[in-house]
Amino acid sequence: MTIIHNLGFPRIGVQRELKKALEQYWRGQINAQELEAVGFGLRKKHWQQQADAGVSLLPVGDFSWYDQILEWSTLIGAVPARFAQDAQQETGLDTLFRMARGRAPTGEPTAACEMTKWFDTNYHYIVPELEAGQTFRIARSSLFDQVDEALAAGHQVKPVIPGLLSYLWLSKGEDFNNGASDERKLALIPALLEVYEKVLTRLQEQGVEWVQIDEPILTLELPQAWKDAFKLVYAKLVQQKLRILLATYFESLDDNLALAGHLPVDGLHVDLVRGNDDLQAIADILQPGQVLSAGIVSGRDIWRTDLDAAAVRLQPLKEKLGENLWLAPSCSLLHVPVDLASEKKLDDELKSWLSFARQKLEELNALAAVLDKRQTPAIEAFLARQHQALENRKTSRRIHNPAVQQQLAQSVSISRDRTPFNERMKKQRAALGLPLFPTTTIGSFPQTADIRALRRDWKQGGLSDVKYEAAIKEEIAKVVAFQEEVGLDVLVHGEPERNDMVEYFGELLAGYAFTENGWVQSYGSRCVKPPLIYGDVARVMPMTVEWTAYAQSLTNKPMKGMLTGPVTLLQWSFVRDDQPREQTCRQLALVLREEILDLEKAGIHIIQIDEPAFREGLPLRKCKWQAYLAWAVDAFRLSVSGVRDATQIHTHMCYSEFNDIIEAIAAMDADVITIETSRSNMELLLAFEQFHYPNEIGPGVYDIHSPNIPDTDWMIQLMQKASEKIDRARLWVNPDCGLKTRDWPETRAALEKMVEAAKVLRLQ
């Protein structure tokens, strides 16, 4: 019998139960015991759902309160000194939350740890902060408690832990900020090995047989020192009696295939969806008795798997490996919604094309039956439905739009070039009349319960179009008046009509579809509901012009038009897989081009096209970067190149490393870029300084993901630090991201201090 296992399951719950409980706890509406009870209930439910789907080895440790890397940092005692963690006590839940967001119901507020994207996904993790001579210890029992829970429920478990070397690779610290960073990080291996051995010993004592150790950095181009470290580390770890499944994902092993295959581990998981390693080569490097876990069902998208093709691909491996061939999703199912059965409004045709987390496990169960030659009537019926759905999707008329295809073909002749920046800048400064250190926000303002209820009632038909429009305009007027009171220089309309920066636009475009409960965790309690791009994308009507023009009519100050960029609209959707992604991206660019030109005609002279996912789309292997960056930059320039010189184009990027793609960012040729720098203490500006970035920059001066109110002197110091790297005439002052998740008292207090900081800077 072919073993089915899972690398990880969505933790938030089909109705976002975890999100709601976390936010209740942070607001003081429930206590820690009540929060723990919600987590216990979700874990129990999810384990049973996986077992019912045929999963033999259940992942334990994939549940976390914020993210799995932060969870591991607290478990091994890697808590920065500013969080005042007692070296002899267990790391508490509130210490974990203070590390993530700077504040918790107990403990002193302080600066949160840095947050960034998990490889090329829209999931975020809290970056480990380490230092030379760092010590480690088992400081939290959560993993072991969860193993006991699962064993008590009668499940066969497979604990999931971050790999030692991937954890080190992802870590940061002041001691690692120079050319010796690799050497200094690798010097921590002995101390880390000691705590890893203790963790494995404790798991073994609990009766665990297999442990999954995630080493996704094996899909990267690694320096030789790191490759050598893998041999050292795993030679030491396999001395434990536990059986180790080494898990890689998100890309091919490529030049690391031989390295991974020769490590003395009991099993190797490879991503056969995103990876293109030769299966025969993988099989040939396996050691006698070693398990190959085939990640054959995508953990990153929501389309049904072609099980016929998968069976043909895997049958030779099955014949060679027998019971040592395991089946699994390509990566953790954290990146997809929980259950398609919760979707009641999707039409039958579209729904038949989809597969969420629970359905992906059912697909694996059917594939295992095919490989084992134990097809029952139920399995045969499942396979027939799967085959028919795939055929229907290929021939459906709703997929292709000849007008869009024609427009795309003609776009080749559209110039992507604007007048040189220095010439544009003079016209923009003359037209806008802004002071030094102009102040603005990233776009969104607090989304209150009343606003969300307003949108809900309108969508459900309980509120007429006329009343809805009047209510939204009333909210816009409040936001504009608020910004004038605070003293901001460039205003926004606040986006009260938008549920999400991607979903909002998708709802107004052809080629998109939407779910009711297709929630995916982005970070902590932040969940998004990615739209589905199933066909050619076209603009049906103007999407933002009416609201932005109305906001501009209320003030003499410049009003920014707010749009989501083509790459982010692509990356933060579940994208059709029947054509190249770059083709879909250019369709989105043409849609935005129409919207941008209409905004300009309506008198909007500053337009921001957000691209926070720009780096997220970067392939993990550098040899593939150039091709991606070429079409990503081209899509952005295609969307904006039609505007007049005096129209100022902004873009926004957050929680990404820019050093290695700074040339591509410059090639986008936005007039102003706003970036996140508050958590990293202006570290990200170094790339812009070293490259001599020519255009204007707004380094975020405070962290909107923390409820802490920023100090005016702190923001002044940050901007002084920025002005040492960038000409002060090219600097803007702004938060590091949108204010949607904050409340109004926090927002007022923070922005008033930010404006005060800008005024002080102008006098220096």
Automatic annotation (TrEMBL):
Substrates-to-products reaction catalysed: 5-methyltetrahydropteroyltri-L-glutamate + L-homocysteine = tetrahydropteroyltri-L-glutamate + L-methionine
Documented EC number(s): 2.1.1.14
Cofactor note (record): Binds 1 zinc ion per subunit.
SUPFAM superfamilies: UROD/MetE-like
Residues annotated as domain Cobalamin-independent methionine synthase MetE C-terminal/archaeal: 437-759
Cobalamin-independent methionine synthase MetE N-terminal domain boundaries: 5-320
GO biological process, one term: methylation
Amino-acid positions noted as binding L-homocysteine in the UniProt annotation, renumbered to this chain: 442-444, 495, 610
Residues that hold Zn(2+) according to the record: 652, 654, 676, 737
Binding residue positions for 5-methyltetrahydropteroyltri-L-glutamate: 16-19, 117, 526-527, 572, 616
Cofactor: Zn(2+)
UniProt-annotated catalytic positions: 705 (proton donor)
Residues binding L-methionine: 442-444, 495, 610
InterPro entries with a match to the protein in the record: Cbl-indep_Met_Synth_N, Cobalamin-indep_Met_synthase, Met_Synth_C/arc, UROD/MetE-like_sf
Known pathway: Amino-acid biosynthesis; L-methionine biosynthesis via de novo pathway; L-methionine from L-homocysteine (MetE route): step 1/1
Protein name per its UniProtKB record: 5-methyltetrahydropteroyltriglutamate--homocysteine methyltransferase
Species assigned in the record: Advenella alkanexedens
